[in-house]
Write a structure and sequence with these properties.
single chain; mainly beta; Phosphatidylethanolamine-binding Protein; six-stranded mixed β-sheet; about 35% strand; globular
């Protein structure tokens, strides 16, 4: 996948980049997905895809918390608990939708990467793709990408 430097930026009003996510987005709270918004959409963007991944999970491939795609170009945010109306892929539990942050007790702080991909096409993909499947499909269409990172621990 191309590494692009551009204007696209993603953030969350619920936590700063690199800061601890509130309990609401974890198994210790309501377990809903955090609100996300983006700016600096590059010219030629036709749609977006979003992936949330915890590379610190004690699994070889980490843990995918959310796979969301088919987000129209005119959309600039996903509200808290959002994602309805877009295509949901499968998280690492094998289910669609957000899986709350839940690092194992004593495993330290985990970093949750929310990756946003601006695509040059409206790609018609079926629901239920894994993160890896989605990334393979969108790779030739990524014109810019951005990320925001939240942290969480069960210490």
């Amino acid at each position: 996948m191309k590494i692009n430097k551009g204007t696209l930026s993603i953030s969350s009003p619920a936590f700063g980049h690199g800061a601890r996510m509130p309990d609401a987005y974890s198994k210790n709270g309501r377990g809903v997905s955090p609100p996300l918004s983006w700016t600096g959409v590059p010219k030629g963007t036709k749609s977006f895809a979003l992936v949330a991944h915890d590379a610190d999970a004690p699994l070889i491939e980490g843990f995918t918390h959310w796979v969301l795609y088919g987000i129209p170009a005119q959309v600039d945010s996903v509200p808290e608990g959002g994602g309805a109306g877009y295509v949901q892929g499968l998280n690492s539990t094998g289910a669609p939708g957000w899986t709350p942050a839940a690092p194992p007790a004593g495993h330290g702080t985990h970093f949750y990467y929310f990756h946003l991909y601006a695509l040059d096409a409206e790609i018609d993909l079926p629901p239920g793709l894994s993160m890896d499947e989605l990334l393979r499909e969108i790779d030739p269409h990524v014109i810019n990408q951005a990320r925001v990172v939240g942290t969480y621990s069960n210490e």
